[in-house]
Amino acid sequence: MHKIVKRGIFAVLGTAVLVGTQAGVAHANQYDRVVESYPDGSRVTWKADGEHLLIKDTAKDGHSAVALFRWWDQSEGRFHSYTYFNRDGVDSVRDVNLNLGEGHTVNIKACIADWKGSLEASSSTIRNCNRDWEVTLS
Fold first, then answer.
1. Superkingdom of the source (predicted)?
2. pTM for this structure?
3. Strand partners, 135
């Protein structure tokens, strides 16, 4: 009798641990993407659910991590292009919360650059981008 009770308790506990572990796993959207600058220094992650652009500085090199981002506006027949800097140093992540809605084509690149006080002054320092635009949807 004790063996049956013990087995039942362990089965219940094992199931609870498994359910708790599975609940903590983040669900990846099929449109999520990650790109990295070459050779290193920046990782840009696109999270389609909620339209989040995460810009991580991956190297202690004195450079800022940069995301080049554009989305296709079907009604205007053109891309809207943006450049986002993460100036907070190695291992920091800047979360840019965008509000695009679903179904837009988005393109991302990861780069490094040197912040010079403004986007205009800094744009000429953008370099080491991944070669091709990563294309996905919002």
1. Bacteria
2. 0.79
3. 107
Report whether pLDDT(100) > 70. yes
123: nearest Cα among 133, 138, 113, 108: 113
Rounded Cα distance between 35 and 108, Å, is: 8
Pairing of strands 42-47, 33-36: antiparallel
Interatomic CA distance for residues 101 and 48, integer angstroms: 9
Q: Identify whether the C-beta of residue 136 lies closer than 8 Å to the C-beta of residue 33.
A: yes
Contacts of 37 by beta carbon, 8 Å cutoff, 6+ apart: 43, 65, 66, 110, 111, 112, 128, 129, 130
Among the CATH numbers 3.40.50, 3.40.1130, 2.60.40, 1.10.150, which is that of 33-137? 2.60.40
